[in-house]
Amino acid sequence: MTDSERAQKRANAVFGQQPDRHEKGSAMGLIRADAAAVQEKTARLRAARLAREEAAVAEEPAPKKTRARRTKVKATA
Description:
The protein is an all-alpha fold. It has helices at 3-15, 22-59.
């Protein structure tokens, strides 16, 4: 074993191997999955809100028509 091989082996023992790049990719995958879940929930809640508002408008009765009252004018004589 040469000195350079020994140094390489010692360096690998101290520093270890580089972490795999798949960890970064999996983190991005988690972020994308969370974002997709938030968008799905937002769309579902928006649809429920719009349906609820539409139902409230449909149930609202038409305003009653009332005649304006006449006020009596006092005659001053």
